[in-house]
Design goal:
The chain has 292 residues and is mainly alpha-helical. The chain is 76% helix and 0% strand. The protein starts with a helix and ends in a 10-residue tail after the last helix.
Length: 292
């Protein structure tokens, strides 16, 4: 089954790259999308490209390899960059939720609050926050003793299988890692939940039906991605690991590292009218215009 798997994952990887690259190009080339909302979306899609590139090529190459080996340094490098990107995606989801909260709940103050300096700073934080925060648990786990066995029962260097390979019982490192994950996941999820709860309340109070529909269509794509992303990760890394057999861990990891990145461009492009129009403009598809 390795050749069919290689073909399937190659197709998924190519489609994921094409979808996210299309969004990045649309945001970059269409001046109508040079607003904070689409700038955040373009950076989120660019981060998604980096995110899948850290795992897909190496995982696909393993389907054609007989050794399926990875060095200690390469393993922890993959571990660090992959999960730092996961943290950055969580931060960008929070930034996008904050942007929608300001735009819908405080529309008159939005231009004054969401200045170029603020959204530039948010973009910089979205890219760097995860790489700074996740450095500590990666360094701690890399300092554990690994004296054998040396086989990771996973398709990427996931922290739980890595710690299971260690021959040293370091409960402090495990506690710090679990606490870090719980605080990060729960705090970001609560921030997103509160932001969208306030947004939904504000939308329901709008007198115009057209305004309600536009606001709901904008937020629906964000909420769908949030549910897909945080649902699988919280099940995997916040709940006790002992409850999840190895095969379940692989399936859940496959969900948020392979399936979710493929779905995100479709969700954002198909549910957003302005994005669909921009994609047609950028890629040369004619748009019918009706004269009045």
């Amino acid at each position: 089954m390795q050749l069919p798997y290689f073909g399937l994952f190659s197709v998924v990887y190519t489609l994921t790259l094409m979808g996210n690259t299309a969004i990045v190009c649309a945001v970059h080339w269409d001046r109508h999308l040079h607003t904070p909302m689409y700038i955040f979306l373009g950076n989120f899609s660019l981060l998604e490209i980096c995110y899948v590139t850290k795992t897909f090529p190496y995982m696909s190459a393993n389907f054609l390899s007989t050794s399926k080996s990875i060095s200690f340094v390469s393993c922890f490098t993959q571990f660090y960059f992959f999960f730092s990107s996961v943290c950055d995606e969580g931060f960008f989801l929070c930034i996008m939720a904050f942007d929608r909260y300001l735009a819908i709940c405080h529309p008159l103050h939005y231009p004054r609050i969401m200045t170029k300096q603020l959204y530039t700073g948010l973009v910089i934080f979205g890219w760097s926050g995860g790489f700074l925060l996740f450095l500590t648990p990666v360094v701690l786990i890399s300092q554990l003793l690994y004296c054998g066995p040396n086989t990771i029962n996973h398709f990427l260097c996931d922290p739980v299988p890595l710690m299971m390979l260690s021959c040293s019982e370091d409960s402090i490192t495990q506690l710090i890692y679990s606490t870090f994950n719980a605080i990060f996941m729960i705090s970001t999820f609560l921030f997103l939940f509160c932001s969208y709860a306030l947004v939904i309340v504000a939308v329901l109070r709008m007198p115009s039906g057209a305004s309600k529909q536009k606001a709901f269509s904008t937020c629906a794509s964000h909420l769908t991605v949030v549910i897909l992303f945080f649902g699988s990760i919280m099940v995997m890394y916040v709940s006790p690991a002992s409850r999840h057999p190895v095969q379940v861990q692989k399936i859940v990891t496959l969900l948020y590292s392979v399936i979710t990145p493929l779905c995100k461009p479709l969700i954002y492009s198909l549910s957003n009218k302005e994005m669909k129009i921009s994609l047609r403009k950028v890629f040369g598809t004619e748009i019918p215009v009706r004269k009045i």
